[in-house]
Amino acid sequence: MSAPESVDRVLLTAAVVVIVIAGAGLLTRIWRGPSMLDRAISLDVCAALIIAGLGAKSAFARDPFYFPVMLVLAFLGFTGSVGIARFIAVRDRPALRRDTAGTEPGDGRDGTDGTEEDAR
To answer: Which residues contact 74 (CB under 8 A, 6 or more apart)?
Structure first.
């Protein structure tokens, strides 16, 4: 084994160790929370760690077999994150007050006429 190959082996081993440590921290964040958004972000990072693990496996084997799988996982992780973010955004949206629902400042229905005195 030549020097560059041994350096590659050491760096890939270090990358796998970092991925495993990040995965352990990620599982801790998913378990402990404290909010639903933290868990959602952790699941998105989990997809990224799986992709990184597959990339390290491909690098070890010097085989591009997993590249399409990594691409599909990246797409699924992105769409899942967008879906979760939209769900959380709708759920956490503040409720409109009944007396100002459907009114805009300055249209006269909210008690203002849009003049500068009303803006102060």
So the answer is: 47, 51
Find the radius of gyration of the CA atoms of the chain: 25
Q: Which amino acid is at 97?
A: R
CA 97, 103, 105, 110 torsion-angle sign:
negative
| pLDDT 10s digits, 70-88 | 999 999 989 988 888 788 7
Statement: residue 111 has pLDDT above 70: no
Q: What single DSSP character describes residue 8?
A: H
More confident residue, 36 or 120: 36
DSSP-assigned letters across all residues of 51-97: HHHHHHHHHHHT-GGGHHHHHHHHHHHHHHHHHHHHHHHHHTSPPPP
